[in-house]
Amino acid sequence: MSTETPSGTVVCSGEGRNPVLPEVFSIPDPEAHVVGDGRLFVYGSLDGPEDTYCSGVYRPVSTRDLRTWTVHDVGFRAEQAPWFGEPLVEAVPYPQKRTPFMIESARRMGPGMLIRSLWAMAFTRSRERFLYAPDAVAHGGRHYLFFCMTDGSEGVAVADVPEGPFRDPVRLPCTGIDPAVFADRDGAVYLYWGQWSAHGVRLDGDLRSFDQASVSRALLTEEEHGFHEGSSVRRIGDTYYFVFADMHRGKPTSLGYATSSSPLGPFRYRGIIVDSDGCDPEAWNNHGSIEEVDGRHYVFYHRSSRGTRYHRRLCIEPIEILPDGSIPEVPMTSQGVGDPFRPGEALPARSACVVGGRARIDVDEAGLEVLELPRTGDRAVFRYLAQGEFAGLTLDGSGAGTVRVLVDGRTIGIAAPGDDGVLRLATPFLVDGEGELVIEAVSSRSLRVRTLTLNG
Fold first, then answer.
1. Is the backbone of residue 176 left (phi > 0), alpha (psi -120 to 50) or beta?
2. Which residues form a coiled coil (predicted)?
3. Is residue 17 within a helix (H) or strand (E), and if so which, with residue range?
4. Residue pair 295/66 in contact by the 8 Å Cβ criterion
5. Could you give the C-alpha distances from 442 to 252, 378, 401, 403, in angstroms and in order?
6. What is the pTM of this model?
7. Under DSSP, is residue 169 helix (H, G, I), strand (E, B) or coil?
8. In the prediction, which pLDDT does 64 show?
């Protein structure tokens, strides 16, 4: 079942938990930027169709406190680019040989999934005018949106305010996906793009053109860095961080990073920041960024849902930059940038950060997100509960079954249905560690969970 996003500007109140936005807003590929007035803006794609990535519009989102978010009206539409479908102006060839990462990726996908994926990409190219992952930069009192489309073309549009609307699109002399834009302290602005191999160039002063002879090729490659796609560049101190979808674990669910003393490299691979593998049975890609907000660094990324690679949801985790410039990997959490879940609080089932078996976050007939545990052994993880004493647990949903409840790896008890069909665990438990909650289906007949209430 699909859900349509409301039109106009929408304000979403929350507590900083993941996913950040309500279920009607699937905004992946997040590029986060703090603008001059202190607001944080996130520019991303907008997943809409059931069977493919992205859609034909962008909707920027913003916040002042990482709690209350504004989803702005459409800032740019694919139809605004008049050149869509014209011959491409530049060709960046795919790798001439299969790399070890590509071979491992194909092996993990299996022949059936690989064929479906290639078919879906070709079908999307032929039937739709879609916008893939964007980025934006503030420069000279204006705001520039860099975008790419399903025909491989890239462009830039301009606005007077960070949320747009963006207008006057100009086609750039490059092809590929996932443009990233970075403004250095000296005023120079750089553009990056590419899949399997990342390219970069310093933009001209108008930010709407560049010298093709100055393009730096293969800044990152799949063979040397595990680079798949999703370029994003930031500067912290005197170090340039290149964040990207990383193939080192066999599929690009990880956000990896490489560092350099120059915006155009050479870049040295440093590791993985966050891995969204496990967010959904069909999880495949990731794309995100890092940004400093009020003196604290965060990683912005997406998690897929509904038993698909699509309907990807915006999520955030705090990260730490160590003195040596490294970034320790952080796990996916339900807590996000908010507080741990407390006694007496109700958790939406959509906040499960890891699922196992065929468990997934899906939508019910009303278009509301639920946790589905269709088979015995299916499980879901919620991170983290606050330290303290809980009186038990209540799970509200539909279907039938029982679930085992574990906290920090120890079994607390079995939540069984009462006469009203609601699953209840009356056993009190104490949280004195990290507070990782796991529910696992002992038996299931189309079991769906909407909310988990932590009894106080």
1. left
2. none
3. none
4. no
5. 32, 8, 7, 5
6. 0.93
7. strand
8. 97
- State how far the Cα of 150 lies from the Cα of 130, in Å rounded to an integer: 5
Is the backbone peptide bond immediately before 428 cis, with ω within 30 degrees of 0? no
Cα–Cα separations (whole angstroms), residue 73 to 13, 57, 165: 17, 10, 8
* pLDDT the model gives residue 85: 79
How far, in whole angstroms, is CA 18 from its chain's centroid? 11
Cα–Cα distance list, 235 to 16, 33, 319 (Å): 25, 12, 15
Cβ proximity of 340 and 326 under 8 Å: no
The alpha-helical segments, DSSP class H, found in 73-220 are 100-127
Q: Count H helices, E strands: the chain?
A: 2, 33
What type of residue is 223?
A: E
Domains located in the chain, CATH noted: 10-319 (2.115.10.20), 346-455 (2.60.120.260)
Q: What is the pLDDT of residues 159-202, one digit of tens each?
A: 999 999 999 999 999 999 999 999 999 999 999 999 999 999 99
* Regions of the chain with pLDDT less than 50: 1-2, 91-98, 112-113, 115-126
Distance between CA 45 and CA 318 in Å, rounded?
22
